[in-house]
Write a structure and sequence with these properties.
SET domain-containing protein; SET_dom_sf; binds S-adenosylmethionine; about 25% strand; 4-stranded mixed sheet
């Protein structure tokens, strides 16, 4: 795919990113801390990982009334994905989560911590890549088959969030199963109980 390519079914209202975008308020010190690879950051995006639309995934608009996100989009495997393997990075606006930014911007459903110590998060609501379409497993599947993980991007020499297939054992429905994600299956993570309890509280406040 050439430069400037965007994935099929990408929404025209959201700029497509092929690398993170940094908010101007992110300080030099915050950027420097993202450039440090701590020894526990064992997983990496390799230096030859292609930028632009990811051939491993498809964005699909869900038309299944039994799916809790029916009518929205989800991210699906374009081929079998091996247990534990990297699927794609999570790009969005890298921003500080401290005031004044946090006072002027509500945390969106697309906002993930990138580095808590450095107070840096990545929000893919207004711009991002295919990873912004990963749904939560609740109501779709018994358990997640993928996870967001902080990792090292060897291309930029920076910490990054990325989506990985869960390792065998964590995702495998039976001991005999090898796990991984089958071609055509939806890629599903756990947003965490906190995401859904906050959502319930917000809902209760509005009724
Ligand atoms: C990061 S977005 C995921 C992509 C989203 N489906 C879209 O088309 O933009 C998070 C939103 O997806 C929806 N969602 C994801 N997983 C869900 C689930 N298991 N049940 C209900 N809604 C879900 C919720 O509306 C949530 O606020």
């Amino acid at each position: 795919m050439g430069r400037g390519a965007i994935p099929k079914n990408w929404p025209s209202s959201v700029p497509y990113l092929s690398q993170p975008s940094f908010a101007p308020h992110v300080t030099k010190a915050q950027r420097e801390s993202l450039g440090i690879r701590s020894p526990d950051l064992t997983t990496a995006i390799p230096s030859n990982f292609a930028r632009g639309p990811c051939p491993l995934v498809r964005i699909i608009v869900i038309s299944d009334p039994s799916h809790p996100a029916n009518g929205q989009a989800g991210l699906f495997a374009a081929r079998h994905l091996e247990p534990g393997s990297l699927i794609l990075p999570y790009y969005g606006l890298v921003h500080s989560s401290t005031p004044p930014y946090s006072l002027a911007h509500d945390k969106s459903d697309y906002d993930l911590w990138l580095n808590k110590e450095a107070d840096v998060a990545v929000d893919a609501e207004k711009a991002g890549n295919e990873a912004r379409f990963v749904n939560d497993y609740r109501g779709v599947r018994e358990r997640p088959n993928a996870e967001f993980r902080q990792c090292w991007d060897a291309r930029s020499g920076q910490q990054c969030m990325a989506v990985f297939v869960l390792p065998a054992g964590k995702n495998a429905p039976t001991k005999a199963s090898a796990g991984g994600i089958a071609k055509g299956a939806e890629i599903l993570v756990s947003y965490g109980k906190g995401f859904w309890s906050k959502r319930r509280e917000e809902h209760e406040e509005t009724v």
